[in-house]
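Methods — Computational structure assignment.
A single polypeptide chain was analysed. Its primary sequence is given first, followed by the predicted tertiary structure written as structure tokens.
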Amino acid sequence: MRLVLASANADKAAEIQELLAGALGDELELVPRPDWVGEVDETGEDFLANARLKAEALVAATGMAAVADDSGLEVDALDGAPGVHSARYAGEAATYADNVAKLLAELSGSTQRTARFHTVALVRFPDGREVVAEGRVEGAITHAPRGEGGFGYDPVFVPEGGDGRTFGELSPLEKHAVSARGRAFRALAEALSAR
């Protein structure tokens, strides 16, 4: 199976490559997103809509089946924010550190720290068929970043099943075992294998 990767985020692309290669092995050839394909406006109302927009754009640009995902952090005390705006929470040009700083500032003084990561993974074929899978992991937001691993909100998110460590403190293998992206892409690989 040959799929073009919709994500231009190098960190996310590396995780997707690891997860799909681990699940599908030699059955999969994952092609990097071509440099000439422009950014896709993520204007969807939810993670599924944004994943679909990205996959459709890559199919249209390349004529190949495309794999995309959209994911974000949903914080209960913030009514589900940052949600679909997770990557741009502190603004369009925000860094990971900017987003984390804004999140921690918004939660300053709050005792409600529960949150979850939610991922929708999708493969879109040129004939319009789709395979979709979702993953979630419940957890809590710390008061300060911990750990050097991962990316994005990983240093401030303690997953259930992570023995009190943040994603930033877990090894990639430990993180993939419990992360929303890990769960979504394992389910996607299973669905693709069953086709």
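Note: The domain at 2-193 is CATH 3.90.950.10 (Maf protein).
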